[in-house]
Amino acid sequence: AWATAGAFVLAGLGAAEVVWRAPHYLSFFNLIAGGPAGGIEWLDDSSIDWGQDLIALERIQREERIPRLALHYFGSADPAAYGVRFRPMQPEELTRPRPGPTYAISLHFLNRIGRPRNGPGDWLRRYKPWRIAGTSIYLYRF
Questions:
Q1: DSSP code for 98
Q2: CA–CA gap between residue 34 and residue 134 (Å, rounded)
Q3: Are 138 and 104 contacting, i.e. CB atoms less than 8 angstroms apart?
Q4: Dihedral pair phi/psi, residue 71, rounded to 5°
Q5: Residues 140/130, Cβ–Cβ less than 8 Å
Q6: Are 111 and 74 in contact (CB under 8 A)?
Q7: Distances (CA, A) of 54 to 35, 68, 78, 89, 104
Q8: Cα–Cα distance between 12 and 5 in angstroms, integer?
C-alpha cells in the first residue's frame, strides 16, 4: 500500500512539474536534473537549443526597450522574422565583452565557449545572465 501511494505521489509531482514548465517542453529538465538551468550540464547542441526562444527574446527586447541586441544565436530561422532587432556578435566580443551592448547568446554557444575553464569564453562562467529568454537564450549586460 505504501509503495502504491508513493508511486502515485511521485507521478503527481512529475505531472505537476511538467505543467509548471509549460510551454518549454523542448528544454525541459526535471528538478532532480537541475531544472532548465541545469540542462546545460547534461545535453548540448540541438538536444537543448533549437532557437525556440526567439519569440521570448523579441518580447524581452520590446519590454526593456533594447534598440538592438548583439546576438550569437544557434538556429536556422531568421531572428528578424520574429521581430528581433540585432547585429551578429563580433568574434572578439565572445572573448572580451565590452560595456554597452546587450548580449544575447544561445545556450548551445554558452556550452561551447563558456564551459571550458580558462577558455576563451570564461567570462560566461563569471557573470550571471541579466535575463533569460525562455530557457535557451541568455542575456548579459555590462
A1: -
A2: 16
A3: yes
A4: -115, 135
A5: yes
A6: no
A7: 20, 14, 9, 16, 10
A8: 11
Q: What's the rounded Cα separation, in Å, for the pair 64 and 25?
A: 26
According to DSSP H, which parts of 22-66 are helical? Answer: 35-38, 54-63
CB proximity list for 1: less than 8 A, separation 6 or greater: none
Cβ-contact 74, 7 below 8 angstroms: no
pLDDT at 134: 85
Task: Identify the helix (H) or strand (E) that includes residue 108.
Answer: helix 107-109
- State the cell numbers at 23: 510551454
Write the pLDDT tens digit of every residue in 60-109: 999 999 999 999 988 889 999 999 999 999 988 888 888 999 999 988 77
For residues 103 and 113, what is the distance between their CA atoms, to the nearest angstrom?
14
For the segment 53-68, what is each residue's pLDDT rounded down to a tens digit? 899 999 999 999 999 9
Q: Are 89 and 96 in contact (CB under 8 A)?
A: no
